[in-house]
Structure formats: structure tokens, C-alpha cells
Amino acid sequence: MSAGPDPAWSRACLAAALVALDPAGTGTVLRARPGPVREAWLDRLRALLPPGAPVTRLPAGIADDALLGGLDLPATLRTGRPVAQAGLAARSHGGVMLVPMAERLTPGTAARLAQALDAGAVEIARDGVIARYPARFGLVLLDEGEGEDETVPACLADRAAFHLDLDAVPVGAIAAAPPPLDLALALALARAADPGMPAEAADTLCALAARLGIASLRAPLLALRVARLHAALDGRAVVAEPDLAAAAALVLAPRARTWPPDDEEANAPPPAAETGREGEPASDPDDGDRRDDHRPVDDDRILAAAAASLPPGLLARLVSGVTPRTRSPGAGRAGAAAAAQRGRPVGARPGDPRRGRLALIETLRAAAPWQRLRRGDGEARLRITAQDLRIRRLVQWRETTTIFAVDASGSAALERLAEAKGAVEQLLAECYVRRDRVALVAFRGGGADLLLVPTRSLVRAKRALAALPGGGGTPLAAGIAAAGRLAAVERRGGRSPVVLLLTDGRANIDRAGRPGRAQAGADALAAARALAAEGIPGLVIDTAARPQDAARALAAAMGARYLPMPQADAARLAKAVREVAPAA
């Protein structure tokens, strides 16, 4: 198989061929913006799939009945007996399911997809109907998130063999792509050949996964599957080192959390106790033949192949110990969902329509299976009992209150305070677009002051910000505590508070108002931990001329994201505040 001029595109084309050979055993996370490169890869996958293999698309906000299957209501009412209807998962059997904006999947939908992938089937057991449909399909998770903080659900990403990133692939690479495979020949090879697996292959891939910091056991299992497919694709009867190298590059390298440093001791001669008189390794006369017949796979060469497949810059970050950022479980949610008498419908439950809204379709679904028993001879009326009644479950999103806690002390020099005010104005504009309530807390001298009560008025917020004075000590603990008290009040009022703290992190006034950096720093960290214990999301913007370790430690104690001011232009600030408290 010839490689194209762009290595990332060549690997993506190879992954498409392997997915086409076994969609249910592989799966893909495809990180790419909508455009010609992504569409070219999807077109290539469709062309490589066997004839008749379905390619379905998961709609946003799909209901459980539509995904897993349920009652066919018209047929059930017409026949008077339960008639099951297959869902999207069963209709995707033998093919692939495309999931647009997979980073926005709800946890419930992601869990149901993961369960279907593990079982290879979906079972409908509802209202007296029991049916089982095969559902072996592959997922193509289209990751369109902005940055590394928006990722697909971990339960699905862990089950996908390939993690591809096509954002850096130029459009011109499509024309220079490897030639399409002869699908009939490839499928014949894959079906006719069941490549043998050397005894040490599993040990090698498991050891590589451990060296790369991969904790999931699915990664080496998927790598073994990909190695078999690669060997079958190349017509080999036994999995060889090139197949293991391809599996490591395609499956293990994108999952790497760390990278082993160069080990000079690996090339050093063995200790004297393990060598003979001539400096050669001591040999056991009984295992010479075994060593010749079962030569171990060179995992260093496989690791080098995996390193060559990493995107530019990622290897350096892994070697330095900087792991890829992961999205927190609560990120991407504005406010909190609460049961309400009005709001967005999220399903139905048994209940009294006098205490909620009648769910007509769900009520008919519950009543349909029992009509044959309830109807008299020749009676055509639909009989509905109290046990059939369903009412809607509604969710109403609570509005968000963004609390700005601004360091106005002397440590934030006058020019930095001016930049901080400019940053707050940009954030205020972002909150105004999202229709958030905003509040302003300033701390300087001996304590903290509430300069602006929660409001939606952008004019009042800017006026209070313009009048913000500067100078004095840094009572950081008092500022965090004041923001926490206001957040508690807003939460009791049914709103979701978010704290945006602008400071350099260098406290010098403790909670009692006494000077002293050591005690002041300890009090600030304690206040930050208390804020984190309340589950209040936050963002710490470091206003110092250079990033400060004190501000980083403060963000870690708050459980908040850290953003240094020198790197915080308007776009980054707007993106950061959206990630902390996106619009509902």
C-alpha cells in the first residue's frame, strides 16, 4: 500500500480501509471541522464498505424508542396486539452509524450506544413486547469541539479503535491520496484468512500500552484486532512486526498519555552476572532452539513507528509530561436542570394529567397492547384506563449568574488593572449575549466590596467597573469568600452561579485583615477549596505580567480552569467563559 505525501491523510485512508473490513470491531473518533477533507474521508469509507452495508446518521436529541426500538403504534392499534419496531441501532447492523457533534452527546445516549456496542444487539421489552434485534455496527464519532476541552464521551472514545485528527490535513492532500483498494479482493482476503497471532504479540502491545500511560485494557485488545485486519489486508498468514507497528501507530499512539524517555541502558551490555567469559550473554543450552524459533518482537522499533505517527508537537508535550487535557464531567452545561411544570419535554412517566401535561402518544403506546382484552365483541372503541395515563417530564433550565471577583490591590499594578478592566468588559459583553446576570465583587485594602448586585444591565456593569479604584493590600481570601457567599445566595434563588476570578494570586492580607503572606496564602487556598466543595464552577484569569505559580495553585484548589492574561485575547476570553458557563 503506497503512502501519500501527507502522512496524516495516508493513515486516515488506511484506517478507513480497516474500518470497512470490520466496522463493528473497530470504530473511529474523527476530529475534523466540516469541510472537503472530512467529506472526502467519509466518501472514501462509504465506497469501501461492502455493497448494501447501511450508513446511518444519529439525529441530535434522539429518543430512546427511536434509537433502540419500541412499539409500532399504528400497527399495534390496527391489529390490536403489540407490534415491535426496530430502532436506528438495529437498522445500522452490518454498517456504520455517523454521529455528528459527538462531543455534545448526552450521557444517557452515550451509555445506551456503549451498551449496544458491547452486546451487539438491542432488546425491546416494553409493555408486553419482547424482541431482540442484532445491532453490530461501527461508530464514526465526528468530534467538532473547539480545542482539547471539548471531547466525545469517554465511554465511546474508549471503544473506538481509531482516533484521527484531520484538522491539519490540507485540502490538496485529497488529490494525492493513496489509490482506493480493490474492495472485493480485500474482503476476500479478510474472510479467507484468519491470521495467526505470535505468542508474544499480545505481551508486546500490552507492554507498549503500559509504557505510553494507557490505563484502558480495551486499547491493546483493539490494537490486536487491528493488527489481524492489517495482516489480512496485506495477505499475510501470520501477524508480523509491520502489522503490530501499524496497530501501535493507529490505536495506541493517539491514546498516549506519556512517552518513555530514551533509555540508554537498553543498549548497554548485560550485567557481569548474566554474561559469559567473553562478555556475551550467558546462554542456557536447553533454550537455544526456542530462542531461534520464537524471536521476540522488537517493541522499540514498534514504539518508533508509533512516534512517527504522532501529530507535530504532541510528542514533545508527552515527553515533557504535559498530558492532553480532558473535559470535566460537568463542562458544557449552563445552569442546572430542574423538574418543572413548564419547560422542555424529556420523556414521559405514569401520572395524573391534572398534575401535569398529558403525553398523548405515550398514553396510546401504553394502552395499545391491551385493547384485544378490553374490547367487547365487535367493539371498535379504544379503551384507556388510569394505569395507561402518561404525563410529560419537563425540564426548565435555570439562568446563570456570572460573578466577577476582581483584584484591585496594589500588587496588580495600575497598567495591569487597566488590562483587567478591559478583560472584564469583554467578558461582560459575552455574558450579555448569553443573557446572564452579572455581579461585580472587588477586593483591596482590608476586605471585599460588592460593587454591583446581580443584574442584566450592561450599562450598570460598565459604570461600576469604570469606578473601580485600585491600590492597597490583597485580601484574596476575603474576595473569594465574598464571591462564594453571593454564589450561595444565587443558588438558593434557583440560579446557577459561576465565579470568574481575576488576580495574580499573591495574597498578603489574611481573613482577619492582618498582613502576612504565608497566612494570607493559606487562607486564600482554604477559601478556594471551600468554593470547590460547593461545586461552583469557576475560571481564574492570571492578571500578572507573567504567569504565576500562585495563581495556578489557586485555580487547582478551586477546581477551576486557569488562563494567563498575556495569552488571553478577546477570542480566548470569550471561548473560556463559554466553556465554563455556555448558553442554555
Automatic annotation (TrEMBL):
Pfam families: AAA_lid_2, VWA_2. PROSITE patterns: VWFA. Residues 257-296, 324-354 are annotated as: Disordered. Transmembrane segments: none annotated. Residues 401-580 form the VWFA domain. Signal peptide: none annotated. Residues 324-350 have a biased composition (Low complexity). NCBIfam families: PRK13406.1. This is Magnesium-chelatase 60 kDa subunit. It comes from Methylobacterium indicum. The gene is bchD.
